[in-house]
Amino acid sequence: MNEQVQDRVETCVNRQDWPFQKTRKIWGLSLIIAALGISGVPPGFGASSLPITLQPEHATPGATLSLTGKGFGSFKSVQVNHVTINGIPALVQRWEPDLIEVKVPFNTTSGPVEVVAGKKKLLAGTVTIVQPHIESITPTETERGTLLQITGRHFGRTAGSRDPNTMFGVNDVVIGGGVVRPRRWTDDRIEVEIPANAMSGDVVVRLASSDPLPDGSCCAPVEHVVSNAVPISLIPSVRVDPVSGPAGTKVVLFGQGVGAGKGPTDAVLIGGKPATIAQWKDDVIVVHVPLGAESGPLVLKSQGRERTLTDFTVHVPRATALMPPSAPIGTLLRINGEHFGFYSESGSTPYSFMDFNTGENRVEIGGVPAVIYRWNDDRIDVWVPFSAKGGHVVIYRSANKPNQDGSCCAERGAVATDAGNFTLATPIIESYEPKSAGLDEKVTIKGKGFGTFLKTAEHTELGLNQKAYKRRLDVEINEADTSATVLSNVSRTEVLFNGAAALVQSWSDTEIVVTVPHRNLYGIGKRGEFFDNLATGPLVVRRGSWDVLPDGTCCSPKKWMTLEAGQFTIEAKGLPDTGYWNNNRPDASTNQ
Question: What does the pLDDT read at residue 455?
Answer without folding.
Answer: 73
